[in-house]
Amino acid sequence: MLVSTVSWTVEKHFCFGSLVDIAFFHEADTCGMERPLSKDNVALNKDSNSCCSDEIISVQGQDELSISYDDLSLGQQYLLVAITSYYLNLFQPREQRYVPHADYPPPILVKDIHVLDQVFLI
Prior knowledge:
The chain has 122 residues and is an alpha+beta fold. The chain has a domain at 2-59. It has helices spanning 2-5, 74-89, 113-117, and strands at 8-15, 18-24, 52-59. The chain has a three-stranded antiparallel β-sheet, with no helix packed on it. 0% of the residues are buried.
């Protein structure tokens, strides 16, 4: 949906047939060999002998969207409800299990039995 609604432009600047710059969404940088302005500050028309050329690719996005849920079949509606309920249940807090000995502290060790018996895990 995002790709179909966004307008984008790719502009390429060529000088002597080789690519100088490619720009997305803005104007491409030129090579600096544009024709100078005349005395009247009026730009000269580009003729066929010009060394530079520009290529512009423009894609217009869709402005009007029509989203309707009326054309969903019964199976698609069931699937939509199932996915929505599954997604919402992911955020439900889980039930805590009752641990009967959670309130009792562990026994106090008087001596370290592993050291006394010299039994070590390697």
